[in-house]
Amino acid sequence: MNDLQETPPARSTVDAPSCEQRRQALKIAVIGMAGLGLLRHVDASFADEATDKRPQPGDRLVDINGDLAKPLKADDIKLASKPILAFPFDPATKKARDGSRLNKLLLIKLDATVMNVETKARSAAGVLAFSAICTHQGCDVSEFLPEDKNLLCFCHFSKYDPLADGAVTAGPAPRNLPTLALQEDNGELVVAGLLSSAPGAKTNT
Question: Are 24 and 106 part of one and the same domain?
Answer without folding.
Answer: no
